[in-house]
UniProtKB/TrEMBL annotation:
GO terms for molecular function: histidine phosphotransfer kinase activity; phosphorelay sensor kinase activity. Its EC number is 2.7.13.3. PROSITE patterns: HIS_KIN (PS50109), PAC (PS50113), PAS (PS50112), RESPONSE_REGULATORY (PS50110). Residues 244-297, 376-439 form the PAS domain. The chain crosses the membrane at residues 12-33, 207-227. Gene3D superfamilies: 1.10.287.130, 3.40.50.2300, Histidine kinase-like ATPase, C-terminal domain, PAS domain. It comes from Pelomonas aquatica. GO terms for biological process: regulation of DNA-templated transcription. This is histidine kinase. It catalyses: ATP + protein L-histidine = ADP + protein N-phospho-L-histidine. GO terms for cellular component: plasma membrane. Residues 324-375 form the PAC domain. It is an enzyme of class 2 (transferase). Coiled coil: none annotated.
């Protein structure tokens, strides 16, 4: 605790000395104030002369400018008005509430006032601006500034006229006539200001003199009274000192921060209660008088000794300046330490350092909180960096304050380079106004919650200058006066590319569907008349009563040949379209090559015989394993390829020529070769061999062809994971080689017989057939074909509705259904039949000109047990009918 010193003789005269010192101090202070006030008044007088000089010079240059219209005169005019304008700025700043002293200083400096006088001028104005002897000159000053403003407005209007190239006019004349009048008014105001300021100076001087005299008299009387009472109050004064010291100690003890004092030797002079508690001590005597550094500050946090002569707390005494330290520890009485932040202030006595006062806080908890906050910020930063979308935060000046890793990748730059940059520099020039509008149009929430404005498409600009599309969402958060805008963005280049690719793919698929639909319609429209042509040609050839003459049979064969050629063309076009669109499905399996080769050779045998060409099959002469060759292929498509290649070898051969069909093993593959000794092809023809519909000049010969057979064959071989190679030379014939992967031999599957009808098995009275067809020609054709089977009872329904009623009233053993019946499709009729109990078990066979695999598959999935494509092959139709008849009936069927 702070204790008072013992009474002494010096303390007896201390009150007298204090009073006298106070008298002198107050007198000096009043004198200083008087000097400062008078100095300020003098400065205003000096300023008024500078004001007047500036105004006079301005008037002189204005008159010159009115005559000369010179920019130099105008510049000198403006320069001369700098002093009055500066004084006006100072006056207006001091008349604000609260006064703007910085602006006032700038104005007085612009008014050419001496810098040392400005603070006094400001104080004089603030202290006495409402006093009448100062209010009057200030009002005159204000009126002068208003007149100068009128002069400036007059000159500016005239200058605009002059700069516009019109030297005359009302404005210029007004400047010439009004300027002298304004100057005269300013001269009167300056004289009035000077008189008023002189009067104010005299009144101020008299007032200060009176105050000095009054204060001197009052203080002299007071000092005499105090001296007289000093001896009587010495005891009371000493008691009051003790009371005050006790109050000061209580004040120190109530402070939350730790406080202690040290002398020049480092001994503790006092310590408050908070310091004792933080340091683990109970009484002041434990520390007062001790070298405190050795008790609480002797060691660094890492255990190193902390010498007293290095202690930064003592620097306050050595440097006579405050010291602030935040990275050291104090040690408690029990040997534990804690982090502190302390200040050390030097204590001066008689101009000399007598010690220092230390103030400190235990900042352990604060540092722990700061560390937790830093860790939280780091976690948040890492979390933002893991976000897949770019995140950019922008302050109220549109400067970037956050730039995550995804944004670095999107803009191909680093956060270090981006921070502090305007966000507009990372967007295309055309999108910057849109970005600013979006940022301005995102109203902030006053409750600390962000406001969003949806997704927007913008164009970003990478560091390399490359532009890229993006989707951006903006949210704005208002926190008091600060605003934070967050931009979450995503590079949608890949998304747009995928969207364009999807559009292109959809367009391609639509085109492919349109092409397929067209080909389907074309196939249907061509097959329908071909059904009549080939059907009736077959009927003519099958007619026995009366038999046709040989010439008539030859004519029928020509009709059939031309019809089958057209049908082959339609089939090839459909196959090529499906191959190109990727919609041709193959069933790859182990296929016996020799069997397929035999079938293909047999199918071309008649063509070769008519052309006078011999087909040799060397593989047929091989025995055992050498003759067995199994390949991975689709049996039907492989036969189609071999028929096409054999047909070409025959058609483009010479009469008496030869064609050799053979195959041989070639490692993991089997090579099937078709060699002819025809005219061959040139290199130019070979280069264009696989172009669709390009017959390489053969169209000018009598050889039939379409020009797509080879193209289709190559596609089919490639779909079977093989390779087709054509080698040829003019005059040396052609060799076609089909290479296919070798396969393990597989046991052949016996074809499942077409199951006879349940009705035919039960009644044994023949076959009841209902034919749904809206084309009369097709009806007549089927009717004549069915006439070859007397046991078949054929009924005809011209549309779907009639067919359904007929079938419901008298369920047939078999229904032949066309896929296009006018009022409904064949699939719709099948659905209606299957839903009705009376017709649910009727067996259905489609007879249609729709020949696409997906159309056939749809019919089979709907419950059709067979599908005959037009033109109808009568043998297939008769086989279907025969398969449905009971054994006793089919044994007595007619022949064709």
């Amino acid at each position: 605790m702070l204790t008072p010193p013992p009474p002494s003789r010096r303390s007896a005269i201390w009150p007298v000395a204090t009073v006298l010192g106070s008298v002198i101090g107050l007198q000096v202070m009043l004198a200083a104030v008087s000097i400062e006030v008078l100095s300020a008044v003098r400065a205003y007088v000096t300023g008024e002369s500078l004001y007047s000089k500036g105004q006079k010079n301005a008037q002189l240059h204005l008159l010159h400018y009115a005559r000369s219209r010179s920019d130099e005169d105008y510049r000198l005019f403006s320069q001369s008005l700098a002093v009055p304008l500066g004084d006006r700025k100072a006056r207006e700043a001091l008349q604000l509430d609260p006064p703007d002293e910085q602006a006032a200083r700038e104005g007085f400096l612009a008014g050419a006032n001496h810098p040392d006088d400005i603070d006094g001028m400001i104080r004089l104005f603030r202290w006495f601006h409402s006093v009448p002897f100062m209010a009057r000159p200030i009002a005159t000053w204000t009126e002068g500034d208003r007149v100068i403003a009128q002069m400036l407005a007059l000159v500016e209007r005239a200058r605009e006229r002059i700069e516009a190239g019109r030297s005359g006019g009302r404005e210029v004349e007004e400047m010439a006539t009004q300027a002298p009048l304004l100057n005269q008014r300013l001269t009167e105001l300056e004289r009035q200001f000077t008189d008023q300021l002189g009067a104010a100076s005299r009144q101020t001087k008299s007032l200060l003199l009176a105050l000095n005299l009054a204060l001197a008299a009052a203080l002299a009387l007071t000092s005499l009274h105090i001296v007289r009472l000093s001896l009587r109050t010495r005891t009371a004064a000493a008691a009051e000192v003790r009371r005050r010291q006790e109050s000061l100690q209580l004040l120190l003890d109530s402070a939350a921060e730790g406080l202690y004092g040290i002398d020049t030797e480092g001994r503790c002079t006092f310590v408050n209660r908070s310091a004792l508690m933080m340091l683990g001590y109970e009484r002041e005597s434990d520390l007062v008088g001790q070298r405190i550094h050795e008790l609480i500050h002797h060691t660094h946090a890492d255990g190193r000794v902390y010498p007293a002569d290095e202690c930064r707390m003592y620097q306050a005494m050595r440097q006579v300046d405050r010291v602030h330290v935040v990275d050291e520890v104090f040690w408690r009485r029990d040997g534990t330490s804690f982090q502190v932040e302390y200040w050390s202030h030097p204590v001066m006595q008689d101009g000399l350092v007598s010690g220092a006062v230390a103030t400190f806080f235990d900042v352990t908890e604060r540092l722990r909180t700061q560390a937790a906050l830093r860790e939280s910020e780091q976690r948040l930063s890492r979390l933002i960096d893991t976000v897949a979308d770019g995140v950019i935060a922008v302050d109220g000046n549109e400067r970037i304050v956050l730039f995550n890793r995804a944004a670095e990748r999107a803009f191909e730059t680093t956060a270090e380079r981006a921070l502090g940059q305007p966000i507009g520099s990372y967007f295309a020039n055309g999108d910057r106004p849109k970005l600013r509008a979006l940022m301005a149009g995102s109203p902030g929430q006053g409750n600390g919650m962000p406001a969003h404005n949806g997704l927007h498409e913008l164009v970003g600009r990478r560091a390399s200058g490359e532009k890229f599309p993006m989707e951006a969402s903006l949210s704005r958060l208002s926190m008091g006066r600060s605003v934070l805008t967050t931009v979450v963005l995503r590079d949608i280049s890949a998304h747009l590319a995928m969207r364009e690719e999807r559009k292109a793919r959809e367009a391609l698929e639509a085109s492919s569907r349109a092409k397929t639909d067209f080909l389907s319609r074309m196939s249907h429209e061509l097959r329908t008349p071909l059904n009549a042509v080939l059907g009736f040609a077959q009927l003519l050839r099958m007619t026995k009563q009366p038999a046709l003459a040989q010439a008539q049979l030859d004519q029928v064969r020509h009709i059939e040949h031309a019809g089958h050629h057209l049908l082959a063309l339609v089939n090839d076009v459909l196959d090529l379209s499906r191959v190109e669109s990727g919609r041709l499905n193959l069933s790859l399996e182990a296929v016996a090559l020799q069997a397929v080769a035999d079938e293909a050779a047999s199918m071309v045998e008649m063509l070769a015989k008519n052309a006078g060409v011999r087909i040799h099959r060397p593989f047929a002469e091989k025995a055992g394993v050498e003759r067995e060759a199994w390949v991975v292929a689709d049996r039907v498509r492989l036969r189609q390829v071999l028929v096409n290649l054999l047909g070409n070898a025959v058609k483009y051969n010479r009469r008496g020529g030869n064609v050799a069909l053979d195959f041989e093993s070639n490692g993991s593959s089997i090579d099937c070769t078709i060699r002819d000794d025809g005219g061959g092809m040139t290199a130019v023809q070979l280069a264009h061999l696989f172009e669709p519909f390009n017959r390489l000049g053969a169209e000018r010969t009598g050889v039939e062809g379409t020009g797509i057979g080879l193209v289709l064959s190559r596609h089919l071989v490639e779909l079977m994971r093989g390779r087709l190679v054509i080698e040829s030379a003019a005059g040396l014939g052609t060799v076609a080689t089909v290479s296919l992967q070798r396969a393990q031999a597989a046991a052949p599957l016996a074809p499942a017989p077409f199951a006879p009808s349940m009705h035919a098995q039960l009644d044994g009275k023949g076959l009841n057939v209902l034919y749904a067809e809206d084309n009369e020609v097709n009806v007549e054709l089927v009717r004549q074909v069915v006439s070859f089977r007397p046991a078949v009872n054929l009924r005809v329904a011209p549309n779907g509705a009639t067919a359904f009623i007929e079938a419901r009233n008298d369920p047939p053993d078999l229904m032949l259904v066309d896929m296009h019946l006018g009022d409904m499709t064949g699939l719709e009729l099948a659905q209606a039949l299957q839903r009705h109990p009376a017709t649910a078990r009727v067996r259905l066979v489609a007879v249609s000109a729709d020949a696409l695999p997906e159309q056939i598959r749809a019919a089979m999935d709907q419950g059709f047990e067979g599908y005959l494509t037009k033109p109808i092959d009568f043998r297939q139709l008769l086989q279907v009918l025969d398969g449905q008849m009971p054994v006793d009936v089919s044994a007595n069927r007619g022949s064709c």
